[in-house]
Amino acid sequence: SCIRKNEMQIEEIKKELEIELGKKLYLHSIGTMEEAEKLASVHGCDKSKAKIAGLLHDCWKGRCKDNLKHSKESAELAKTKFDVKDDDILNAIMYHTTGRVNMTLLEKIIFIADKIEPNRHYPGVEEIRREAYINLDEAIIKSLESTIEYVKNRNLVLDMESVNTLNYLKEGK
Ligand code: FE
């Protein structure tokens, strides 16, 4: 069946990622996959797509930890090495760090699953985690605001795409 085929694909990907990623990043990927599946179930999204996107969202990060580039590279590797053909899955991986204007439901789920999976510990995570199961947009707004605050306080480079996403979601309220 289709579900069985997906489960086999996921088991194959897990085996490769366990070698490809370090332990910490591998556990983060599994955590994101499981969180994405739960969110998909609550918000009425395709659970198989959410699992695959969550599992692969950082698949390139083991090779280079450049935070601003790893999303695009991970989407590329998901396509070329892991044979993912679905554009919604690839876009969810591509935009998981900053989000973007007009995000799909799957893109929102992967964005927030990455930030709240059980291995994530930072001030405010509990509130964002709770909100993600009530109002996805609100959870993403809180998450982006906390990221932007973090970047400001440390004098780091702010990715404008995060600001665009935040403004877009706030306008939609
Ligand atoms: Fe991640």
* Distance between the ends: 41 Å
Percentage of residues in DSSP E strands: under 5%
- E-strand count: 0
| Residue share in helix | 55-70%
H/E element order? HHHHHHHHH
Structural commentary:
- The protein is mainly alpha-helical and 173 residues long.
- The protein is built from 9 helices and no strands.
- Helices cover 69% and strands 0% of the residues.
- The radius of gyration is 15 Å and the shape is globular.
- It has helices spanning 2-20, 23-43, 47-56, 70-80, 87-94, 105-116, 125-132, 136-153, 160-171.
- The model has no long low-confidence stretch (mean pLDDT 94).
- Bound molecules: fe (iii) ion.
- The site of fe (iii) ion has 5 residues, from helix 2.
What descriptors fit this protein?
single chain; 173 residues; mainly alpha; 9 helices; globular; binds fe (iii) ion
How are the secondary structure elements laid out?
Blueprint: H1 2-20, H2 23-43, H3 47-56, H4 70-80, H5 87-94, H6 105-116, H7 125-132, H8 136-153, H9 160-171
Bound molecules: fe (iii) ion.
Sum this structure up briefly.
The chain is mainly alpha-helical and 173 residues long.
